[in-house]
Amino acid sequence: xxxxxxISLYDGARNCQLKVVDVSDGTGxxxxxxxxxxxxxxxxxxxxxxxxxxxxILNMYVRLQWAGATPGDIAYIGQGMDILDFTDDYAGGxxxxxxxxxGNITMxxxxxxxxxxxxxxxxxxxxx
Length: 128
Fold this sequence. Notes:
0% of the residues lie in helices and 63% in strands. It has strands at residues 4-11, 15-25, 32-35, 49-58, 61-70, 72-77, 80-85, 94-95, 99-110, 114-125. Strand 1 (4-11) and strand 2 (15-25) form a beta hairpin. The protein is globular.
C-alpha cells in the first residue's frame, strides 16, 4: 500500500498556491515531489519564494525541501496547526537554497502510523 496524497494547485501569473493532503497508511513519503516548477506558467525555475506555509499535522513529522543536487531545507514541521509567515523575511519570501536547484519542492514524512495525516498549504511568489 501507499499513502494517499492529493495535490491542488492554483497557478497564477505571479503567484501560486499549493495544497497537499496526505493520509498515511504508515508507509510515509520520501522526497515526494509536491510541486514541479517546470509545470507552472510562466516558468519560475529557481526564482520562486515561499511566502507562507499553513499546516495541520496529526501523528507525523513533515520535512519540506527545495529539490536540487543538494536539497535545501524549507521547514521541518511536527504535530499541530500553525502558519509560518516569511513575507517580512528574506526580502518577501523564503528563497530556494538548494545547490543546483530545480525549483521543485519535495516532502518527506517520518514517525507516521496508519491514520496519520497532514494538510499543508504553500503560498508562493514566482519571482519572474
